[in-house]
Amino acid sequence: MNPWLNISVINVKSTNNKELFMLLQKVNNDSDTLIVPIASLVIEHDSKSGLFIESLDTTGLFEPRHLQTFYVQAFIVFVVSLSNPEYLETFSHPKSELVFLKSSPTKKILTPKKLLKYWQNVFHMIYPNVMVHSNYYKTPVLFNSIDQFHFFDDDPKSKTEKVNIDDFLLILLQRRDFVKGGIIITVRNACLTAQNMVNYFVPNRKRILELSTYFGAFYTIENEIYDFLSRIRKEDYSTPVTASESIKKNVDIEHLLCAEIPLLREEELERIRDDPVVTLQPRKKK
């Protein structure tokens, strides 16, 4: 087997504070070469060096399939590293087919608890100070004042009354979207509970961080993000062939640059699992 994989990244930029990144894999199919979408990530910036991950979706078409979770995690780390934010947050909520509406039949959804753990692991790869707040699982609060939180357009905190921090966090848990959801936050610098996070173990952290350094080639498209997404959502991503044909309708693949990334060897990994495809529910504006 070839010890290298070929990947590319599309970056869709618009005039507002949001960006879309899409991970693509170049694969050989008989006599043809396919450009297959693997994952999409929508992020939102604020004016205070904060970053919010609005949505994540995958197709389940990565080859080899059982290694997809490692490369998607490396992709997330790469995208975040481009901004090097002081503050990073996401809202974890299991939901299928957010972008790739007709995706692989092997696509499965993580349970709320497993999805929270997934994001906690990813965030710990970026910074050691991570906070999880949900009805399923909680870690120590990172801050002692509500003013230390950042608030984003699609962030459930933005729809919650700003009272003292203890009441604020309690009110969040009463929201309907927290029945299966939760927020995960990490910060770059030391904070109130930094000393509690030092020994958190993330399987394969070193290998995933190394993979993230290979995501150097990407193609930028100037387009309104939700217009681009509306076109992407109309296509078929059930097989590598149909997914490749679908992406060609919306992206000029002749301008794509591919980077070589090493193929992980199973004997190098601390744990191999055929993880379900991960999706993150974007919140609708009210």
From TrEMBL:
Record's GO cellular component terms: nucleus
Major location (coarse): nucleus
Pfam families in UniProt: HAT_KAT11
Compartments in which it is found: Nucleus
Keyword Lipoprotein set for record: no
Highest taxon listed in the record's lineage: Eukaryota
Keyword terms, alphabetized: Nucleus, Transcription, Transcription regulation, Transferase
Biological process terms in GO annotation: regulation of DNA-templated transcription
Keyword Magnesium: no
EC number: 2.3.1.48
Coiled-coil stretches: none
InterPro entries membership: Histone_AcTrfase_Rtt109/CBP
GO molecular function terms noted in the UniProt entry: histone acetyltransferase activity
Name of this chain's protein: histone acetyltransferase
The organism's taxonomic lineage, starting at the top: Eukaryota, Fungi, Fungi incertae sedis, Microsporidia, Pleistophoridae
